Amino acid sequence: MNNKTLPIFDSHAHYDSEQFDPDREQLLGEVLPRKGVVGILNMGSDMPGCETTIALARQFPYVYGAVGVHPECARELPGDWLERVETWLQEEKIVAVGEIGLDYHWLDACPKERQQEVFAAQLELAARLGYPAVIHDREAHADTLGLLRRYRPRGVVHCFSGSAETARETVALGLYIGLGGVVTFKNARHAVDVARTVPLERLLVETDAPYMAPVPFRGQRNDSSLIRYVIEKIAEIRCEDPQTVANAAIENTKTLFHLP
């Protein structure tokens, strides 16, 4: 595959991460556009990350942002945290509430009850203001689905880790499925099943950069140019042309986030 001819829209990345401190300007300013990256949706996950996300969206024409509080960051927040998220949503290129959700793998970071409280508050905010939500669900499928049924947001469950059946339930709620580097991993049975069965019009592709780099770069720092390996793998699983998958993913991203 020639990545110069394959347009890439990374629907989920974290370029505010300190792992990009050494070369962030060069990477976003020169390297990624040269490699076919036409769009990036950067995720704010905590208060400082949201502010950096806004700055990146202002600086780079093809970068958009989401603002929100990740479940691992939800234990201690300033009293006006939700008002600050609402204010940040007024920024022109901030297009979603995210990354928000539940993560029961790291309960020492934040207990379940607090995670659910912060998640629910942000789902209510997204619904009230008409923004899509970018949802993190790790080892919390039942509770996540319960809150999604309650609030009925538009949005995407990113880095989808559930079964094909859970994916069908998620799509039935009107949500999109985000797939990334995991689909290339050797033992990624669930991700492969989901990639095979999810309707193409409900699929987004992502990196979660700097995390979750695809094979053959697993364990290294991820960036948006490597998403072509995800597209290639999904196309192989679905017996479709990579260009078809790439184009569908871009159109789905633009539709969900109301992008030009």
Topology readout:
Blueprint: E1 8-13, H1 24-34, E2 37-43, H2 47-59, E3 63-67, H3 81-88, E4 94-103, H4 112-129, E5 133-138, H5 141-151, E6 155-157, H6 164-172, E7 176-179, H7 189-197, E8 203-205, H8 227-238, H9 242-257
Parallel strand pairs: 1-2, 2-3, 3-4, 4-5, 5-6, 6-7, 7-8
Helix pairs in contact: 4-5, 8-9
Shape: globular
Main sheet strand line-up: 1-2-3-4-5-6-7-8
| Overall pLDDT level | 96
CATH superfamily: Metal-dependent hydrolases
Keywords for this entry:
single chain; 260 residues; alpha/beta; eight-stranded parallel β-sheet; 8 strands; 17% strand
Describe this structure in words.
By secondary structure, the protein is of the alpha/beta class. Helices cover 41% and strands 17% of the residues. It has an eight-stranded parallel β-sheet with strand order 1-2-3-4-5-6-7-8. The longest helix has 18 residues, at 112-129. It starts with 7 loop residues before the first strand and ends with a helix.
Summarize the structure.
This protein has an eight-stranded parallel β-sheet with strand order 1-2-3-4-5-6-7-8. The chain has nine helices and eight strands.
